[in-house]
Amino acid sequence: MLELDGTLAAEFDLIDAFIAARGIDVAVATETDALDDLVFARLIVDPNVPRAEVVRLAAGATPEKLARVVALLRPVELQMAVAKMRVRRTPSNQAHVTNRLDDPLLLAADAATAVAYGFREVETTVPVNADAPSNALAVLIGSQVGSAGAITQCSVEEALELDLGLRGLTTYAETVSLYGTEKVFLDGDDTPWSKAFLCSAYASRGLKMRVTSGGGSEALMGAAEGRSLFSLESRCVALARAMGAQGVQNGGIDGASVVGAVPGGMRELLAENLLVMLRDLESCSGNDALGSESDMRRTAHSVPLFLAGSDFLFSGFGSIPRYDNMFGPSNFNAEDLDDYLVLQRDWDTDGALRPVTAERLREVRERAARACLAVYRELGLVDGGADDPGPSSSLGFTKEHVAEVVNAEGSKDVTPPDPRAVLRAADAILERQLGVLDVVRALWATGYEEEAARVFAMGRARVAGDYLQTAAIFDEQMHVLSKVTDPNDYQGPGTGYQMTGARRREVAAIRQQRSRDDLLARYSAGAPKAGGGMAAGATAGSASPASHRAAPFRLVERGPAAAGADPLEVCVGVSPAFATRLWSTMAGLPVGDALAAVVAGIEAEGCSARVVRVPSTVDLGVVGLTAAELAGSGVAVGLQAKGTALIHRRGLAPLACLELLSIAPLLTLQMYRELGANAARYARGGQPAPVRNPYTDWAIEARFHAEVVALVAIERGETVPGAPPIDAEVER
Amino acid sequence: MSDDALRARALSGRPLGEITLQAAVRSGLSPADLRIHPDTLRHQAAVAEEHGNPQLGENLRRAAELTALPDDEVLAVYEALRPGRSTRAELDEIAARLDAATAPLCAALVREAAVACEHRGVLRAS
User: Fold this and answer.
1) What digits encode the pLDDT tens for the residues A572-625?
2) Domain, as residue range, for A434
3) Helix, strand, coil % over all residues of chain B, rounded to 5
4) Could you say which of A7, A242, A510, A687 has the lowest number of CB atoms within 10 Å?
5) Are residues B119 and B62 in the same domain?
6) Which residues in A lie closer than 8 A to residue B67 (C-beta atoms)?
7) CA A112, CA A115: separation in Å to the nearest integer?
8) Residues A68, A170 within the same domain
9) Which residues of A touch B116 (CB under 8 A)?
10) For this structure, is A174 an active site residue?
11) Residue range A7-25: mean pLDDT, rounded
């Protein structure tokens, strides 16, 4: 190549030279160069153009050309392109597992938690560099508890990271950083050739690796050479392909906030991921640095890629709390896991994670912490090791510590281990040249045979080498999913990756899910038992109906209701399920208490109250109107089991009531009493000030509407069409 | 696991079928039994090339050559390639050693680095 993006060969810097020598398919370079940018951009998005054809053309593109073409895509076109161009069909996800203390047992438990949630790669790092071997070992052990096949890495300085990988204490590497300008590349203490050699070194030991770049890093290091973030990133990605790396971690990374600070920054981050996919490399797609303190902005950053799918949606979802993330908080963290699982369900989209029960989490955390402790003891890394570490060193390596770790959300919940003990363990791992076979034997010897088998399987997988292919992960049965075995075949609607039925059910089964039976159990709290006492309320869910507050209450039906003659008589009409199936209002009040408050209000204003059940309808307007027609005064209160209440008057249209308290979840006994009092005032010919509905900034419909649907269905089930109203009496 | 993979041998020469957990816990395995064989890497290189990634293929072929080098030598070559670590003569010597160790692709990479780094003035002066 005589020229690259306007630079003549004699002027090539190291990056130009490396890309020119290896990175561009000269057989198609002329064809690609001649292709109009806009035409190329359309080929990328068009589902009728095969992915392979786009890959062929992209291989002939210079960094500038590819950057120009991708820059033409709008956000939704980027999403289309990502869905089509990512390498692996099945999306996956990576977790960050670290803590402030380098606490090995906590690392092991948190790695097990990450794997239970479905993460297939677990990345750790250190606050204290010398702890790295210990962290690598702890995460390796924890990652193999619960299921097989998750791969692990420990992100530290290049030479140490390689060393840990060679020993088999990690199973992949990622922190091989590339930069788009020569100055910054050299500041990073490497050249493209040393990095390329490093790629081969990892592969020579059967280890998967990818490189890391990400827009904004050159600006952060003060030498962007006046080039755009995106054109520099395009150079990095071209370089990655030239070096023979199988994949790239990009999409901002440490520079994400730099990119986010400029107009169009979020679009640029997504476009970075697409550059990798166009070069036919595995995309580990960023979203791993907290892009903003704004929950809306940070979510908006991650959602487009989440919907489009990627080889790795996050190159580190912080599966630990923000404060424990030694990479700095990720864009999504443990605090967001529940929301993320719900997002998968809402969008019917595979975010590569799954809900986990609290019991399962306790189980894997305990096993991981115990296994880690057992291995550290068995290998003599703690407690009774060669240099007799003394009493303080057992801090963090005891059964009590296991118990703390199992229940800990993060490192703030545990007694800090002795930092010198962790260091000694780390040093011993290096000095004694401990490797994967030692770990296997220690797990086996201490009774962790399943984990021994899984760690061994990770070692054995290196011999086979199938996970050196592009975008390789192991599923939980140790099958390799990669460009070779699981290629992305998206070609428009109805093609490409789709969740199986079983996977969709898994995604849908969020832990917040409640059944109709759960609901009925809650709303039947306060119902009288056969023996005359009350059923204990089930405690599932939020509003805990106050069975303990309720006086025993029963509504006894006396027979068909006739029209009253007393002009001071106010009726209270109740709904079909009121005190038959439903015994609690949405505000958690016993229905009997709500009714008693209404009656008390009526009587306080000098009227008499008569309770009638209206079994023929779920419509509260009709319930109230029917009762009003029976009342001697022509005025009635309508009261639904869920707590909605109104005042009605004979002769009005069903929906044109006098007053309505519609926000059932917020109604209080005082409001019911006021409503009763106002009904009496209307009966006596007064014009009272209406009772005001309470207001709230809750997402009140989101909180309650699904429940209302179920409650109305229960009311509907209790209706007897055409049945006349019935007089009812309260028994306490 | 593919048939090809099942046929593979470890660097030690032991067939994959004999590399079992039982052997590992009986201390019947050495680290070389969990090391990839150069033939396997060349096979994976061919797979990568068939799937349209000659650069990954080349990387895996360089890796096949490096299986013969002990860890510390691999680390030493990496270190020598970093900026300002080596003179032109030292890199040429490393390349010659790699050639002698039947690692011609790695040798070529080192020579290419030597030329480019000399051109850009990022070698150690003396």
Assistant:
1) 999 999 999 999 999 999 999 999 999 999 999 999 999 999 999 999 999 999
2) 94-486
3) 65, 5, 30
4) A687
5) no
6) 204
7) 5
8) no
9) 14, 17-18, 191, 193
10) yes
11) 97
